[in-house]
Design a protein that fits this description.
four-stranded mixed beta sheet; 16 helices; globular; single chain; 323 residues; 6 strands; alpha+beta
């Protein structure tokens, strides 16, 4: 979280490009990325930022281009680079899909704007109680809020902004404070790919045949906490091996906008028309498991009985969950 927080602070400093019109030439260009090559990543970022006004505004690009969401897309590009072309239009379509989700419009983007406004505030100890409430509303963990407070209390400069304090905290951070991501292990495992439209009964039949419980992972392209778990928890080899060996594991996306055949349309419990795979998956989660949050993991037996369930968690907690 601290790494993400600090990254958001620096977004307006790096890779700023302004375009008056959508750059259609770049849309059809094939993405070329080389693992661990900073220059290819810089070129990629520059070209992506030039797509402002292609349905995305600068705030959208700031959020998506430097967030775990983009890390997820980059890993997907590297995994598929030799098997299928990946153009900037492909990426744009994925990003536009994310910006249209309710979570992005009503949660992620407003919080980002609030955070940027917060970093411009004067860091005054007299206003700490009200400033702390803003950080809590942004769901910044208590230990990082405490770290900001300690830095504020000990600050010799009384005329600085929170951005300056956060920059100083970032410079003082040691490598072991940051989470290590294992993209190669993660990207090469098809286990986490979108399962698509879930046939619940067939999953139970499979469970009866191979005598393994089903582990359903309800997630979304725009679910930042899910992406964090994929990077920090689900990418670990011991976790991947366990999921492959002991479970019928399926990734269920609740924001998959793939249209359903008209004959499969239905009504939600609230009377809304269900026309997409994601909406159908979401209704399955709510109706079967009484949960509408992501990430959400649920282990069920061959009869559909819930054995265990788990939400967002760290490595130790999730390891215990699947044991």
């Amino acid at each position: 979280m601290k790494k993400l927080l600090l990254t958001l602070i620096f977004l307006n400093t790096y890779f700023a490009f302004c375009q008056n019109d959508c750059n259609n030439e770049i849309l059809n260009e094939k993405v070329q990325l080389t693992p661990n090559d900073k220059e290819s990543l810089l070129i990629f970022t520059q070209k992506l930022n030039s797509l402002e006004n292609c349905g995305l505004d600068k705030t959208d690009l700031d959020i998506l281009n430097n967030s775990p969401i983009m890390t997820h897309i980059i890993m997907d590009i590297l995994a598929k680079e030799n098997t299928e072309p990946y153009t900037y239009n492909t990426i744009l379509e994925k990003l536009l899909l994310i910006t249209k989700t309710e979570n992005y419009k009503n949660n992620i983007k407003p919080k980002y704007i609030t955070l940027i406004d917060f970093t411009k505030k004067e860091a005054n100890i007299k206003n700490w109680e009200s400033d702390k409430l803003i950080l809590k509303k942004l769901e910044i963990p208590d230990k990082y809020i405490e770290e900001i407070f300690i830095e504020l209390k000990n600050s010799p400069n009384k005329d600085e902004t929170y951005k300056e304090i956060l920059e100083r905290i970032g410079k003082n951070s040691t490598p072991e404070n940051n989470t290590v991501i294992e993209p190669l292990e993660y990207s090469q495992n098809k286990i986490f790919e979108n399962y698509g439209k879930v046939d619940y009964e067939k999953l139970l039949e499979k469970s009866k045949k191979n005598k393994k419980p089903v582990l359903m992972y309800f997630t979304g392209y725009a679910c930042v906490n899910a992406i964090k778990m994929e990077q920090r928890v689900l990418s670990k080899k011991k976790i991947i091996d366990k999921l492959k060996t002991d479970f019928n594991f399926v990734s269920v996306y609740v924001d998959d906008n793939t249209p359903l055949p008209e004959k499969e349309w239905g009504k939600s419990r609230r009377g809304r028309l269900i026309k997409t795979v994601g909406r159908k998956n979401y209704e399955l989660q709510v109706n079967k498991f009484k949960s509408g949050v992501q990430p959400y993991f649920v282990i069920i037996d061959a009869n559909g009985k819930i054995i265990k369930n788990q939400g967002y968690s760290d490595l130790d907690t999730f390891t215990k969950f699947i044991e």
